[in-house]
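Meet my pick.
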Amino acid sequence: MNSSTGTMVSEVLPSWLTDAANRLRGITGFVTVHPNGGDPRTLAFSRYEHVTRVTSLALSLSEDRRLPRAEVLLLSWLHDINRWPFSHNSESGNFEHADDIERFIAGRLPVATVSQAVGIAHKNVAGLHPAARAVLLSDIATGLLEDTLFTITGLNLSPSELPNDALDLLRLPVGDYSFLEELQHLYTLLNQEKDVPRYVRDFNSLVFRSTRKFLADHSFLNVDPLESERFREIRLSLRSGYLEEKIFPLNNEKVCHGSMIRRVIVDPVISRIGCEAPALLTRWTEVDMVAYALSERLATKETLDALAPTLDYVRMFEPNRCFM
C-alpha cells in the first residue's frame, strides 16, 4: 500500500472494517499464508496485499473519472473482506463469500453500500454504480497481472515457460532488458535476501504500473469496459485459456498442496464446526484454523507442517524451468 492509501484507510474506514482488513494478512491470496512465523516469504502473497493493490488502482481510476474517493476506498476493502482461511481451497462447494457479505456487515453500513459491495463480489455489472464499477475493473485487472508477476518473481518460473500470446495480451514486455532486470530484482529481494517488506513495496508498484499499462494499451483506461465484448473476450482468454492451465496448477497444487489442505484440514474442521462455519471462519486466520485442528486433534502437527507451501518448488523439482 502506498503512503497516501495507508493514510486514507486510517482516516476513512470504520474501526471494525480496519480490524477485519488486518485479518486478511493471515488469509491466502496467491499462495497459502500458513505457516505464519515459518517461512516469512509466504506473507508477501496474502489476501491483504491483493486488496491493497486493487485499492491503489481503484483510487487512481477514481481520480481519472472524478469519482468519490472515500466510496471507492470503502468498496475496495469490502469486496474481499469475509474470505475464509485458505480461501478457494476451503470455500469451494462450502461457502460463497458474495452471498455472505450482507451478514458479515450486519447493518453497520448503509443498505446501498452493502448492495454495491455484494454486486462487486458477484460481478453483477448491470447493477453497479460508477465507483463500484471502478473497483470491479480494478479487481479483475489486478488479478490478471499479479498472478503472472508472482509466478515469475515469487515462484521462479521463467517467462519463457509462459505462452507469448498471453504475455502479449497482458502487455508484459518480457523481451525488454530493463523489465527483466526489474523482475530479477524482485526475485532477489524475496527469494535470496528474504526482504519481504521491500519485495511487497516494489512488487505492488510494478503491478500498479503494469495494470495501468494493460488498461491503457487496450483502450480500457478512460472508458468503462466491463460490458464490452472485447474486454470479456480478453478476460476469458486469459482466465480459462491461460491462468487455469498454466498458473493455477503450479501455485495451487505443486506449491500450496491445495488438495491436501482440503483433505487434511478444511474438510475435518468444517465437519466439526458445522453450521457455525460462516461466523467462525470469517473471523479466523489460517493460523487460527490450524490451531483449532490441533486442539481438537483433527490432525497432527507433523501432518499440518506438511501443508506449508513449497515456494522453491520450481528450483527443487523442475530446475530447467527456473527464471533465476
About this structure: Residues 263 and 286 are 15 Å apart (CA to CA). Residues 1-5 have pLDDT under 50 and may be disordered. The two ends are 27 Å apart (CA to CA). Residues 229-255 form the longest helix (27 residues).
